[in-house]
Amino acid sequence: MARKCGTVGNILGNAFGRQTAFTTADQFQPTNPLRAALQASRRHFIFAGAFSGLINILYLVPSIFMLQVYDRVVPTRGTTTLVVLSVILAVSLIVFAILDAVRMRLLLRASVRLEKMAAANILHRILGANGATPFQRAQAMRDFDTLRGTLTGPAIVALFDAPWAPIYIIISYLLHPLIGLLALLSSLLLIGLAVWSDVATKKQLDQTGKHSSASYRSQDYSIGASEVARALGMRNALVTRHLVERADLVRQQGQIASTSGGFLAVTKFLRMLLQSMALALGAYLAINQEISAGAIFAASLILGRALQPVEQILNAMKNVMGAQNAYKGLDTFCRLPDVTVAPTALPEPKGKLEAENIVVRAPGSDRVLLHNLSFTINPGEIVALVGPSGAGKSTLLRVLAGALEPDEGEVRIDGARLDDWDREELGRHLGYMPQTPTLFPTTVHGNISRFRAFTDNPSTELDREVVAAAQLAGAHELILRFSQGYDTQLTVREGGGLSSGQRQVVALARALFGQPNILFLDEPNAHLDISGEARLLQTLTELRARGATVIVSTHRTGLLQAVDKIMVLRDGAIQVFDERSKVVRFETAEPSRGEKVPSQQHPGELGNDRPKSEETSA
Prior knowledge:
By secondary structure, the chain is α/β, with parallel strands linked by helices. The protein has four domains: 15-153; 167-315, Up-down Bundle (ABC transporter transmembrane region fold); 351-429 and 518-618, P-loop containing nucleotide triphosphate hydrolases (Rossmann fold, 3-Layer(aba) Sandwich); 438-515, P-loop containing nucleotide triphosphate hydrolases (Rossmann fold, 3-Layer(aba) Sandwich), CATH 3.40.50. The chain is 61% helix and 10% strand. It has helices at residues 2-12, 19-26, 33-40, 42-58, 61-76, 79-128, 134-150, 154-161, 165-175, 177-224, 226-231, 235-287, 293-315, 317-333, 393-401, 423-427, 444-448, 460-473, 476-480, 500-512, 530-546, 580-589, 614-617; strands at 353-361, 368-377, 382-386, 408-413, 416-417, 430-433, 518-522, 549-553, 565-570, 573-579. A hairpin with a 6-residue loop joins strand 1 and strand 2 (368-377). Helix 5 runs antiparallel to helix 13 (293-315), helix 9 (165-175) runs antiparallel to helix 13 and helix 10 (177-224) packs across helix 14. The protein starts with a helix and ends with a helix.
């Protein structure tokens, strides 16, 4: 039991007497919303502990009532005494129920405060912390909900009741030293059983939790790729694969359930046996006239109450272990840089981009995707990124847009590092269209407006900006043909219910929303027909007239007539970066490279293949 108290105590440690340590150790570190929220809930936990003390004192009332009935009422046949004792019992139990309800309400308030103070910051970190792994992002909110749920569950109640177990042992000793000794030995026995159960299941629970998360992620991915699976006849194979994963998971869960169930059964057996032994010991002592008859039953009740917290913790073992793991994982996640801390506000960006020694490696390996790239793009310039598949075009665009943190080097906008900008404010002046357009399951209007209705009041001005962005992207007429126009609800399934070309123009409209000064467009014409590409050229022309800085990657030659400069990438390195006319002459002068010259290629492709996956998954 002591170990269990420590387990849950780790979760609440900052709420009980660690204020000084928190202040001195963390005041120069990024804000940890979890610890701050627990610290703010400290009063709730203190009062809950105080009420727990009163509740545990009132737990003695039935035992005292029974003791008085057998020792006073029955021998004297005192009806009046019985009535008075019954009234006292009823009032005490009413107060007991009220205090228990207040305690649960206090814990519920602590849970709500945790939600209000920490949830927003954790969600911001999930969406904006570059240092977090995909698993940490996916698990953080689940850990938070697990921890928050523990504050109102049986485990926390057992934690508050556990410190009172020694009080019951002392009271048992006051009845008779032998009864107190039995209570002490019984408590130590069940505590040892609880610790043994913890040691026996801890490793299994950790492994099962990891396997469960991996299994669900695998199933989610298969659901997203179900169309491909059906088309390629992979359904049976995928089902078999998931059944194998589930069989292994069920086996592990069965082992844990068997182990935990065995410990729980032994605990219940010992508790009932020890309570009966207390009754037997009391009867023996009463026969020898060492205690009264009423003390026989009181001893059994008090011993049962002393052992109850241990049994409660064993019953809530899974929740306790889950809360411990959730706290550890969430505390580590909350130590990442706080993305909600806004830096000094900077002027609206004009569009100068500088890359200084940018190096990006493939996740989990030493393979370099971008090799020490350095260049400058002046405000108002339109630059095309070209090169063969896997050259690093998409990776470079993601780094410039701030979607991907480089392993080395830095990106500057108007002389300021990306980390020096308030990303939310900077995002209002940036347009970004990824290689695979990602639309959210909301309306077309909500996608284009970047959910601005949730931060700004919906207005006709917002509607005008959405329509203007759609018109500039050449998407307005297309959207009007949707079933409900701009209010068409996109679905969660792949593509949101739109074709590739439709997704692309809606994503382009989103990138153009708010008249951004800097745009990053990754293959914006990949799924466009001839008329769509002509409209995109017109869009680039309008952006140049407005003085916007645009970096666009492409495999087609059609867009090159609208750009000022061309950057040729090969194997993650800049081969040439210069004026469009000079780059075309450079490529023409060196045909030995084995690639067609951009000016000679048919409306077709600069490189015959679509970009490799590492550009989108780096």
